[in-house]
Amino acid sequence: MDYETVKAEDFGRSLKGLGLNLLVRDVRALAAFLEDVFAMKAHRLSDDFAIMAYGADVFQVHADQTYHSHPLPSLLPEAGPRGAGAEIRLYETDPDQAAERAGRHERAMILQAPADKPHGLRECVILCENGYAWVPSRRI
């Protein structure tokens, strides 16, 4: 599928399995962060929306204003972090490299440095400026 030209209704009908939509204050800023730190690819990038590709998986990023008729924005804080309690795990990303790249982003925070965990993964926890916890991991 060509994510740059696919019609919205065709893209919507193609989705299956588990979906992830992230509401953010600045779509372009988050897309740039995800591309730099986790080697993702942004498609259909605009101020309102992006399709983010991570390997064969895709998810969507929406600006707050695109959810104007949805009940979720009423629950979001006007300031401060979002996404508390959720981890977005990236099992095919080297945590050491991701942490190094994230360190170059002024508004990113390395919440937990890369470490080997007893569940067989080396991982770290990186918060983006929206407060979402990204967990790059690799098998030990």
Overview of this protein structure:
- This protein is of the alpha/beta class.
- The chain has a single domain (8-139), classed as Roll (2,3-Dihydroxybiphenyl 1,2-Dioxygenase, domain 1), CATH 3.10.180.
- It contains 3 helices and 8 strands; from the N terminus they run αβαββββαβββ.
- A 4-stranded mixed beta sheet has the order 1-4-3-2, with helices on one face. It has a 4-stranded mixed beta sheet with strand order 5-8-7-6, covered by helices on one side.
- A hairpin with a 4-residue loop joins strand 6 (109-116) and strand 7 (121-127).
- Helix 2 crosses helix 3.
- The radius of gyration is 15 Å and the shape is globular.
- It starts with 7 loop residues before the first helix and ends with a strand.
- 21% of the residues are buried.
- The model has no long low-confidence stretch (mean pLDDT 91).
Topology readout:
Elements: H1 8-14, E1 21-24, H2 27-38, E2 41-43, E3 49-54, E4 57-63, E5 87-90, H3 95-102, E6 109-116, E7 121-127, E8 133-139
Parallel strand pairs: 1-4, 5-8
Antiparallel strand pairs: 2-3, 3-4, 6-7, 7-8
Helix pairs in contact: 2-3
